[in-house]
């Protein structure tokens, strides 16, 4: 009887460890997808800013200012995601 109790306790602990591992794995994927999304967003932003500057070189300064602000906002979303997940 005692051995059966220890066996069931061990399987319960193993299930809890698996669930905790799965939660950490899911959090890691959330941060990874946020990083990939941010990288793609900044890449598209840079591409379009270069294209706009090529079409109208006189507007280079406002385009640069807007690009820097938008890149900071995109990175901010990733940073918020990374800190909001909170690995334990």
Mean pLDDT: 82
Helix/strand class: mainly alpha
**Helix-strand topology string:** HH
Could you tell me the strand content as a percent range? under 5%
Q: Roughly what percent helix? A: over 70%
Main β-sheet description: none
Give your account of this protein's structure.
The chain is mainly α and 88 residues long. Helix 1 packs antiparallel against helix 2.
Task: Provide a short characterization of the protein structure.
With 88 residues, this protein is mostly helical. It has helices at 2-55, 60-85. The relative contact order is 0.11.
Secondary structure: elements and pairs:
Layout: H1 2-55, H2 60-85
Helix pairs in contact: 1-2
What are its keywords?
rod-shaped; 88 residues
